[in-house]
Amino acid sequence: MLVRLLIKNYALIDSLDISFDKGLNIITGETGAGKSILMGALGLILGSRVEGRPFFSEERKCVIEGYFNISAYGLEPFFEEEDLDYEAETIIRREILLDGKSRAFVNDSPVTLATLKGLGEKLIDIHSQHATLQINTEDFQLFVLDSLAENEERLVSFKEELKELRNLDRQLKTVREELDSANAEADYNQFLFDELERVNVQLDEVKGLEDEQQQLEHAEEIKRGLNAASYSLSEGEANVISLLKESVGQVQHVTRYLSGVEGLTERMQSALIELKDIAEELVTQENAVNLDEQRLDEVNNRLSEIYVLQKKHRVDSENELVQIRQQLETKLQMVLNQDQLVEELAHKQKEQMQKVLQLGRDIHERRKSIIPRVEMEVQQTLSAVGMPNAQLKIDLQLLDGDRMSVKGLDVIQFLFSANKGQAMQAIHKVASGGELSRVMLAIKSLVAKSSALPTIIFDEIDTGISGEVALRVGEVMDRLADHMQVLAISHLPQIASKGKAHFKVYKEDRGDKTQSNIQLLNNDERVMEIAQMLSGTNPGEAAIQHARELLNA
User: Fold this and answer.
1) Which of 27, 76, 284, 533 is 20 to 30 A from residue 296's alpha carbon, by CA?
2) What is the pTM of this model?
3) pLDDT tens digits, residue range 31-70?
4) CATH for 1-129+455-520?
């Protein structure tokens, strides 16, 4: 509940510090006194955006703080999800700086407006004349039934299972589209794969073929060169090896006369051995080179096939052709596997659909079972607030699986009739503003009995009622306050008299400025305030006596 509200430098408010009662809190005051300013300040700590320059003094920032006792709301998961420190008494602060920027804090941790709004929705429910439009929404109507049917955990499970179902739907759709595409290309891919498989290009094959091609094309020239080199080394009349042998002998002959040439002899012997080896290798190499026209044709044809495939597939190397062949093989294999995958996913999707439908039907049955209680208790409350012939009927229809939503399988409509003989119609078509306010009051008082609703604020929803009806509305608010904190802004003395705490908003001039203030009234001040609400600024003894009677009642 809202324990305390601090407002500094906001609109017509210089500084206010208000502590609220846990039951029914009444706020009264003349039109224009500043009640809407209080609502605006509350709106800011609940995540509303700043409009204009809301400063009482242009020299200081605006600060609004709300102290909330949240121990009964089970909000620990929200705080954990938002990475905020949980405190049983949580402080929400909003600061508006002079440059127009604003900052928001929860327990001194900076938060975004989205987080602030999410938390605010769990703490305060502001019910104004315009908020009666909420009763026309399917979300609110289902919320009423779910609160009383205790469907919260089932709805969480339903949303999770529905999310999984939709995920399977997307997977199945994607796989089917891929399979259709693969089937459309399968024949062409098979043709390309068969062609590459027939040629059977190997990694790094072209370099070896091109080298062999060069050798085969120049085989005669190669043999001639190798043969000539071999002849010069070992076969000619004045071949290199013979001359080197003779030179070795000459050097060896002079070693007896000239010291220091032994090393030269050894080097020449080594050179002779190396030249003989080279000569033999030249012969071997020359013998290995063949003039093979048939093999040359085979190599040329092989290279031509590879070059044609490279050009066809617009690649620069045989390795890319190998990669393309592997990709085509994968695609063809996928066509074989996709049928099985589609079958498996379709089976999972069917099982998941049955699980979702079963949860949805369970939620529907629980909603359906609570409808008679809702209709009966709302009718009793409406009768108590001056609408004895009013009837609320709830039309709940079970949809098929194709039209399910995160709210379940139901479509709902609140039907209403305010008078005898009046046909039941959609509530927003036949109920006046005052009737809608009372219907909403009846519904929220019913919901409050079964769920820990946040603080609720009734912002002048008493428009269009008076007298005995207003007294009954006040009694309903008073009973509602047994289950939750209620703040009611009202112009009606009958409602004002029901509050456990009564605050008066008023204006006063201080110096050259007008300020809005609020004060908690004691019993005598309440008598006078209610008497003034009954008869005007200077109430007579009769009005004062009537005020005392209302308060005593």
Assistant:
1) 284
2) 0.64
3) 888 888 888 899 999 998 888 888 888 889 999 999 999 9
4) 3.40.50.300
